[in-house]
Specification:
2 copies of one chain form a homodimer. Chain A has 22 helices and 5 strands. Chain A is mostly helical. Chain A folds into 2 domains: 431 residues, Amino acid/polyamine transporter I, CATH 1.20.1740.10; 129 residues, Rossmann fold (3-Layer(aba) Sandwich).
Chain lengths: 606, 606
């Protein structure tokens, strides 16, 4: 039953060698990997305006130079990551690059912040997508959490089905979003230039803004940098690309940069030109669309595709998180379970883990995870910086032809992202301080896991030429509660394996014990019966004591086996009718004694 | 840890032969067994008045003759049950008496309705007790559910500790209640006679009550009979009494009848004399106490002891339910688990089951289970009737000396309780119809359980002289994932038991398989390695298929054993770091194959 339901949702299991067909072409890759970056357009401008609004409406003018600064940063990042992809064709995520060049600890710092960040991506993106829907349909406001959770559930299922199929489904809305945003920008600019639109605010920069400080401008700039989250996705996913993987990845990265840059700039300019300020009930994009088209069909298409691409942005994390978890698991810093490929060749455990954690975030923040955007952005810029630093060290170390210009490029990238990280920390400390608690904890967990695996490997390692199996005579103990077919089966089985078989009976009163001894003698199964008396009505304690006695007698020479019969009932509720002593006994023996527990099934037919 | 917490709350385990010391003397028995009956005083009068109020305030007069009728019924019940206790010194609950004389089906009908009733007792009594508290402290109104649940939790713990200790704790409030009610009645009567109290309503019976019908009078009478719930408790619990059990039980029964009768009559008369009518915010007893003493210290003592005895009424069910469940389990109509005595010699499972179910009722009715009183009363009168009928048949069957007068006594009892049951059903059908659905279901479950146990007994029974253990050569299969100390241990163990050992390796790709085969040859442990190739990355499916092949080869001649190594980690979280394939494999093998699963523990030291 369970497996049929699983098949319905997940699909048929796929053979391991089917993995090559699952790889991504450029256009599909753009859809899968760029939705995170492109969707940032939906909130990037708004984040800048929110900070500037704290100064006053005339400060809005500053959004224009800030947007150009963000654009410049985007250019630097694209150029830097182009070099990373070339240098790491097997996948150049910040974890790999940092570990490779800066050592394991730095790699784990980058990897840890990325992992946390992917979870935030899913939560923030699905909340922002829900905001877009709620802007269009305010009556849905109370269902925010459910809308976000439904989308997370849907994405989790799609990703469990496998990456290509989900890419096919997801490509359409990504391109739809790109097209409608360009239509919006085109129509908006046309209306502005033809004077059909009058701005509500006086275009500023009149020098009257005495209250504005460098601090607030930097804060607004760093807020705008949240539009750049997701740029790193391509470099992490190089092995997902069809051959030639590096070239395809770089082409995808450049395409993404062009789209993101022009859309972000367009929206920022329109917002300024139309004099739009952030509002509680309606997002900036929603306001622009309403100003340009009114609340008509086009407005709803824009809101719908914005919502869709935000939900798909979450999908980027669904490609990136499991892959990074796999790499960390391969290096023994995360549980081995993250290395297993599921029926459809995706890393199912990573996908499920990501889905559950982000859903938990949505629930605990009541769908208001948009407040996590600063945290999310700082979590991205830490690995950005480390990755650039790693590349710098790499150029110095390897010194390939023309390395110096590449070194300079990465140095510029590193310094810029470091600067932004610092700006984030200084200007938004109250929102990002938790990173300084959380990241050390994550890294500590990585090391604990690693040490555990290393210890186990030590314990389990044997020398093939020296360590060989040794046989020894063991004892089989058969606890019996009466003389039944189950007992007969167990004794038959035990006697087939060894002659040293002991049956043990635990009696609660003299009558029972006497009766049992008499019947046993009559039956005479060729096995000695040991009778234990329990004054406390417990079967387990006397049995454990008896096993201790046998252990003491046999010393270390022979392995003790305890044979436990287990009823396999025909229907689940029948289990309620049998004292589950055997389960309890097994658990006790497991954790307290070094004995083999052999469970002899007795399949009840009725 | 868990066992230390258990010990703190429950106490040291007790030896089985300590049970004699746990038995009840008369005064303690009166405390434990009569609280249900005595506490009915808290709501019996109110139930009558509630019905009469639907006619009009002048109908209140009828509460006096109705109270006397209830008193007469009490007398009949006491006399009848006196005979039952004498005839069934080993415990004459309705289940036993009905089963013994009227056949199993009728016994189960009585037993089933009593079981359900005990659960209702706990729920109704703790709700009514909460009402008494809330009457005194109206600000606690919103905490009703928590107050009731706390009391149920407390009672469950006390009963898990054992019956004598709880009797000692419980005797004080029962006697306190009796004393304060008599003080209340005495003071009330004195004030009434000295004319310090003026009734608010005109004492009626002026013939002007044209609206009053026989139907409503009967309804009011049957409502008053709810004051008699709990009378049967003594007869169920005869084996709990100290020797001479029957005589002690009868003495207790009579004492209880006297107390109950005089208290009930006193409250009814006072309520009439003081012209009290039921109110939403304050119980009848609370109003009487307020009229007599004002809201002083005595008022709060009365409310407090009313609340206490109501909570203790629930305790009656804690003695009766587990004992009845034990009897039903002994006759194989309920799961065997209800037969086990816990550390403190109580039937722990019955106590816990009762606590959980009544807590669930409290939660689902939001603490308003007082509305269940009619259901609760009809559930008591069904077994009352059946028990009397059983006694009648018994007298006819056995015909001891002087049987006829006893027969007449029980006939009167039977007819009266039957009549009341019918009145209940006719006048309160809308509140009690669910009984006609619920009881058949409970009885059907009893029979299903019984049939299951009978089937199993058939399947398990062997003939001692014919069926003997037979030995046969079996095969041990050792799944291996590599060459480690764990594998070496498992193979050593398997080889100690038999020569037919096969190691099985499931590989996912050619490299792994080749590497494994090479290393195995190098190690050469004296056991053949079978390699299976899995294209679907599943270990379990190829293994199940392989076992099928072995089964097919060996036929029915030898038992197959699968050896599964299991890491026992030092700390719980380490378990997260190991793929729990062995658990999954064990579950699959259990339910799908007839193989012995032997778990070889490997205790990790680090």
């Amino acid at each position: 039953m369970a497996s049929q339901i699983k098949r319905l949702f997940i699909g048929r299991p796929m053979k391991s060698n089917a993995i090559e067909g699952e790889k991504l072409g450029k256009l599909k890759a753009l859809a899968v990997l760029s939705s995170d970056a492109l969707s940032s357009v939906a909130y990037g401008t708004e984040q800048i305006l929110l900070v500037l609004m704290t100064i006053g409406i005339s400060a809005i003018w500053y959004s224009i130079p800030i947007s150009f600064a963000v654009l410049g940063l985007l250019l630097i990042l694209i150029l830097s990551y182009r070099q990373t992809i070339k240098a790491y064709p097997a996948g150049g995520g910040a974890y790999i690059v940092a570990k490779d060049n800066l050592g394991t600890a730095t790699g784990l710092l980058a990897g840890g912040s990325l992992l946390v960040d992917y979870i935030l991506t899913v939560a923030v993106s699905s909340s922002a997508g829900t905001d877009a829907i709620v802007s269009a349909f305010p009556s849905l406001h109370d269902d925010r959490v459910w809308i976000a959770l439904t989308m997370i559930g849907f994405l989790t299922l799609m990703n469990l089905r496998g990456v290509t199929e989900s890419a096919s489904v997801l490509a359409i809305p990504v391109y739809l979003f790109v097209v409608v945003v360009f239509i919006l920008i085109g129509a908006g600019v046309y209306r502005y230039l033809t004077g059909q639109m009058v701005s509500h605010i006086t275009p500023g920069a009149d020098g009257a803004l005495s209250g504005i400080s460098l601090f607030l401008l930097l804060k607004a700039f760093s807020s705008g940098c949240s539009a750049l989250t997701g740029v790193e996705a391509v470099s992490n996913a190089v092995p997902h690309f069809r051959e030639p993987a590096s070239r395809n990845a770089i082409a995808t990265l450049v395409m993404m940069g062009l789209l993101l840059g022009s859309m972000f700039l367009g929206i920022s300019l329109l917002a300024y030109g139309y004099g739009i300020v952030p509002a509680e009930q309606s997002t900036v994009i929603s306001q622009i669309a309403e100003s340009v088209f009114g609340r008509g069909v086009l407005y709803y298409i824009i809101q719908g595709s914005t919502a869709l691409i935000l939900f798909l942005a979450a999908n980027t994390a669904y490609s990136a998180f499991p892959l990074l978890a796999f790499m960390l698991a391969k290096d023994k810093f995360m549980p081995r379970a993250f290395m297993a490929r599921g029926d459809r060749l995706g890393f199912s455990n990573g996908i499920l883990f990501l889905g559950l954690l982000s859903a938990a975030l949505i629930v605990s923040f009541g769908g208001n995870t948009v407040s996590l955007i600063p945290l999310y952005a700082v979590g991205v810029f830490i690995p950005f910086t480390l990755s650039q630093l790693g590349m710098m060290i790499r150029w110095i170390r390897l010194k390939p032809k023309g390395w110096f210009s590449k070194f300079v490029m990465n140095t510029i990238g590193m310094l810029t992202t470091l600067l932004i990280t610092l700006i984030f920390i200084v200007t938004k400390f109250s929102q990002v301080w938790i990173v300084f608690i959380f990241l050390p904890v994550v890294i500590w967990i990585f090391y604990r896991i690693n040490r555990h695996y290393a210890n186990i490997a030590d314990e389990l390692r044997i020398q093939l030429d020296i360590d060989k199996p040794i046989t020894s005579q063991g004892t089989i103990i058969v606890p019996v509660a009466g003389i039944t077919r189950v007992v007969m089966n167990s004794i038959s089985y035990a006697r087939s394996l060894t002659d040293q078989v002991v049956a043990v009976y635990v009696g609660f009163n003299d009558e029972d014990i006497e009766c049992m001894e008499r019947k046993w003698a009559e039956w005479n199964p060729g096995v000695r019966l040991i009778v234990l008396r329990s004054s406390y009505r417990s079967v387990i304690r006397p049995l454990l004591k008896f096993i201790e006695t046998v252990e003491w007698k046999t010393g270390n020479s022979g392995q003790i086996t305890v044979l436990i019969p287990q009823f396999i009932t025909k229907s689940w509720w029948h289990n309620l009718l049998h004292n589950q002593t055997s389960l309890l006994l097994r658990a006790h023996l497991f954790y307290q004694k070094d004995v083999v527990v052999a469970t002899v099934p007795f399949h009840l037919k009725k």
